[in-house]
Amino acid sequence: MDDRLKAIAQQSRQTPEQVRQHYEKQKWIDKLKGQLLYEKTLDLLVSKANVKEVKAKKGDIPKAEPSKKMEKTAAQKATKAKKK
């Protein structure tokens, strides 16, 4: 966490202690800890991942279908266009 506070301090031209005090005052320290934990977890997962690339066959790729939201938006636009 000290490294992150130092980096933030450099970017904001403040001392690490000023940044720490500001984060504590704003109650952002726990959010920063959570963000660091998330990043470390993600780094660990990526480092342990075993990804195997394969070429897709013609029949393997499903056809894209519009989402319900896209269908609703299209229907609303069509209704508005008819009213004009």
Describe this structure in words.
This protein has 84 residues and is mainly α. The chain has a domain of 47 residues. The chain has four helices and no strands. The chain is flat, with a radius of gyration of 24 Å. 2% of the residues are buried. The model has no long low-confidence stretch (mean pLDDT 88).
> What does the largest sheet look like?
none
**SSE order, one letter for each helix or strand:** HHHH
Compute the separation of the termini in Å: 59 Å
Radius of gyration: 24 Å
- Main structural class: mainly alpha
How would the global form be characterised? flat
Number of strands: 0
Low-confidence stretches: none
The number of helical elements comes to 4
Oligomer: single chain
Helix content: 55-70%
The averaged pLDDT comes out at 88
Strand residue content: under 5%
Q: What secondary-structure arrangement, pairings included, does this model have?
A:
Elements: H1 2-12, H2 16-25, H3 29-48, H4 68-83
Helix pairs in contact: 1-2
